[in-house]
From TrEMBL:
Pfam families with a match to the protein in the record: Bac_luciferase
Species of provenance: Candidatus Entotheonella gemina
PANTHER family: 5,10-METHYLENETETRAHYDROMETHANOPTERIN REDUCTASE, PTHR43244
UniProt name for this protein: Luciferase-like domain-containing protein
Record keywords, A-Z: Oxidoreductase
InterPro entries according to UniProt: F420-G6PD/mer (IPR050564), Luciferase-like_dom (IPR011251), Luciferase-like_sf (IPR036661)
Domain Luciferase-like as annotated: residue spans: 14-304
Gene3D superfamilies for this protein: Luciferase-like domain
GO molecular function, one term: oxidoreductase activity, acting on paired donors, with incorporation or reduction of molecular oxygen
Superkingdom of the organism of origin: Bacteria
């Protein structure tokens, strides 16, 4: 069976539209659906709605920022969803970004790496055993217990870009969720995950390797490139992504974007994104071309590619449907 996921999120997609897309993905043979959290859209509620409108497909949060929840509360929310869709839900966690956490949520963005390590460890134990006592630098939990543990253990995935977080995912999570990766970066990323697993006394095969891949089935590549250029520029305003883009071979672009955003010059940031950067990090073109590119990622070692359709100026539902249908080869 071909493992292929789809990221479903856009501000113009109502929950009813998302339910239709999940049912389409399930009919086409996709194995997972992933939901980022955005302002005003609570991800566990959406996940539960999608789980109840589908039958087989796995549904994951991709991601829940660790500073916006308590680990006990996040685990309890996922435990509730797991009772409705046993064996089908995944808790995806990540650090998030300082401006969104401090400016948007009003919480201190302190010790992000340690915070993520402890949050993941607490949530994972609760979602396997249903109870925990824990003493860490961030959390001290005397005793917390679910009324009933999940019917099946719920996997915990950790968002990661660079070596330290990739190694942490290998040490404490059931999977890693990458973003904006080029095929060339996949083997390096996997090596870091394996290193983290082995250092923690785990077998590296216990950690599933997944990645969001911006994807669009289209006969208008210039339109896609313009849309993708703006997306990459937006990510280039964030410190973590600036450093990440440098690491995967786009240091000049990352520097130019950072300098442009420091001046408040959005257009210059967009102009700093080059065509090679777009082509390395985005899948677009005919359905056959997109499937070939997905296969290249698999051959590089990616176990769980997750297509992430994105707006290109047409009704977003059309983009999702065409891309979901095109990227899964007919039996």
């Amino acid at each position: 069976m071909t493992t292929l996921g789809v990221r479903i999120r856009d501000s113009h997609l109502a929950i009813t539209s998302m339910q239709e897309l999940v049912r389409l993905a399930e009919r086409k043979g996709y194995t997972s659906v992933w939901l980022p959290e955005s302002p005003g859209r609570e991800v566990f509620t959406e996940l539960t709605a999608l789980a109840m409108s589908s039958e087989r497909i796995r549904i994951g949060t991709g991601i829940v920022p660790v500073f916006a929840r308590l680990p006990t509360v996040a685990a309890a929310a996922m435990n509730t969803a797991a009772t409705l869709a046993p064996g089908r839900v995944i808790l995806g966690l990540g650090i998030g970004h300082r401006p969104a956490m401090e400016g948007g949520h009003g919480v201190a963005f302190a010790k992000p790496f340690q915070h993520t390590r402890e949050f993941a460890a607490i949530a994972r134990q609760l979602l396997r055993e249903g109870e925990i006592s824990y003493t860490g630098d961030i959390y001290q939990i005397k005793q917390f217990q679910f009324d009933a543990p999940p019917p099946q253990p719920v996997p915990v995935f950790l968002a990661a870009l660079r070596p330290q977080m990739l190694q942490l995912a290998g040490a404490v999570a059931d999977g890693v969720l990458m973003n904006w990766a080029s095929p060339d970066y996949i083997p390096e990323a996997i090596a870091h995950v394996r290193q983290g697993a082995e250092a923690a006394g785990r077998h590296p095969d216990e950690v599933e390797i997944a990645c969001y891949l911006r994807t669009c089935v289209t006969d208008q590549p210039d339109v896609v490139e313009a849309a993708c250029r703006a997306q990459l520029a937006r990510y280039g305003s964030m410190t973590y992504y600036q450093k990440y883009f440098e690491r995967i071979g786009f240091a000049d672009e990352a520097t130019a974007m950072a300098q442009a955003w420091q001046r408040g010059d959005r257009e210059a940031a967009i102009a700093a994104v080059t065509l090679p950067m777009i082509q390395a990090t985005t899948i677009y073109g005919s359905a056959e071309t997109c499937r070939q590119r997905l296969q290249a990622y698999r051959e590089a070692g990616l176990q769980h590619p997750i297509i992430a359709p994105f707006p290109i100026g047409e009704p977003i539902q059309e983009t999702f449907v065409r891309t979901i249908e095109g990227c899964m080869a007919a039996d």
